[in-house]
Amino acid sequence: MKLLILVVLFGLSFAQHNPNMKNGRTSIVHLFEWRWADIAEECERYLAPNGYGGVQISPPSEHVKLSNPWHPWWQRYQPIGYNLCSRSGTEAELQDMITRCNNVGVNIYVDVVINHMCKSIHGEGTPSSCGSYFNGHKEDFPSVPYSYLDFNDGKCKSGSGNIENYHDIYQVRDCRLEDLLDLALEKDYVRGKLADYLNKLIDLGVAGFRVDACKHMWPGDLTNVYGRLKTLNTK
Predict the structure, then answer these.
(1) Cα(198)–Cα(110) distance, rounded to whole angstroms?
(2) In whole angstroms, what is the distance from residue 123 CA to residue 224 CA?
(3) What is the spatial distance between Cα 157 and Cα 37, in angstroms, rounded to a whole number?
(4) The pTM is what?
(5) N or C: at which end does the chain have fewer Cβ atoms within 10 angstroms?
(6) Element (H, E) at 111
(7) 5 in the Ramachandran plot: left (φ > 0), alpha (ψ -120 to 50) or beta?
(8) What's the pLDDT tens digit per position in 3-54?
(9) CA Rg, the chain, in Å?
(10) Distance between CA atoms of residues 227 and 225, nearest Å
């Protein structure tokens, strides 16, 4: 019986980390900041014929648009909602890319930002990639919607509200990372919104996720969100 349990547990752990690549392929390329239309062409033109199994893409969710510096890569890591329109393209272009890459045997793995929203310094009037209204000052993100009730301000014990001591696990997981508004993942409502976002991507046909800032979230909260996810699209 003990051997059987160990074998079963080993099988489950292996399945959990299975990248689900097709035809025995083993290599993933990270096409950082590429447009969805260009990734679709790359899957068909180069990646599939040369045996690549997957592509990791940049975060597809709606994000702030910054002008100083001009549209830096890290604006993609300041979401203001979960609409699928980013500097890489529209939701329709994302769907087309996923479908075309899947059709030639190349999986899509999505970089997702679920630990936080944008910085609090981005108030009313700050533009976003989809044009949705938000106000970081007031922690108001109506496209989700999130309000001040959905953040960890009351849990953080540092003087500034930001992480001040990386040796303090409570600060690392309950306080803001460089002023990024820290979501309260222990709340069922927040967990549900995050699972809805990830499940929508699964419905579109993605094969997995790279989860940003994992060390800044409690493992139990992540386990709860992961437990709400659907099985992969059959494509």
Answers:
(1) 9
(2) 31
(3) 45
(4) 0.91
(5) N
(6) strand 107-112
(7) alpha
(8) 444 444 444 444 556 777 888 898 999 999 999 999 999 999 999 999 999 9
(9) 19
(10) 5
